[in-house]
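Fig. S4 source data, part A: sequence.
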Amino acid sequence: MGKTLFITDLDGTLLNSQAELSDYTVITINSLIEKGMYFTYATARTEYSAGSITEKLNISVPCIVNNGAEIYDRKSGRYVRKSDIPIDAAARIIDAFAENNMGLFMFKFRGEKFGTCYSDNLNELMQEYVRTRSKTGQPLWKCTDLHSENDGSVVYLTSTGDYEKLLPIERIAASVKGLDHVFYEDTYTGKYYLEIFSENASKANGLKFLREEYGFDKIVAFGDNLNDLSMFRVADVKIAVGNAKDELKKAADFVIGTNDEDGVAKWLREAITK
């Protein structure tokens, strides 16, 4: 019998509307992992953020973070794959944000340490991110000149705000060689996220890496938002939660219960134990 990997998005999918794991989900998934289920997640969050939320899950398969820009092995505490943004491409995006007076987060490595550089002109939502993440121990570096940090170790550029303000930058990102991006409405705030990364990085490419590197024969993926579409394109079975965007439901093989109904955990329990 082949190896099957079950992989889920976090926000809006495995996590409830309070961005938490329910006790039922934790107990159910850990019980199935103990019985041999291969399980992990793919998220737009950094590992600092995702790891603190999912620490109760006994995950042994590496996790896809930053929308596929990195793959993190929780067992070894190492990033087993990362995709850097070309310097010229990152420079064009930094300029675009500056020209449009929009704040920007730059996720990068300084040596072995992974953290976030951020510009001066952050909106209130981005300032709240800095305040919240600074309490978790995640490295945060305020930078007056983001170009000085663009040294070939940048893996992710992102901002959040109003659709109309981000749209001109999204169009630039779509035209720059060497880049891929996702542009979607946030699960919690109704604001929009623009997330920019190397063309070699995506949830889909992260999934391909896990399949090839760890010998999975079948992949079952769960999602709710537009940044999960790339993952659906390479998964063998595609499952949307009941609160998912219509575009994702149309691409799915099955639509299950919502994130607030423990939809993923209940489907896994029924599918694996029957």
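Fig. S4 source data, part B ends here. Residues 111 and 153 are 9 Å apart (CA to CA).
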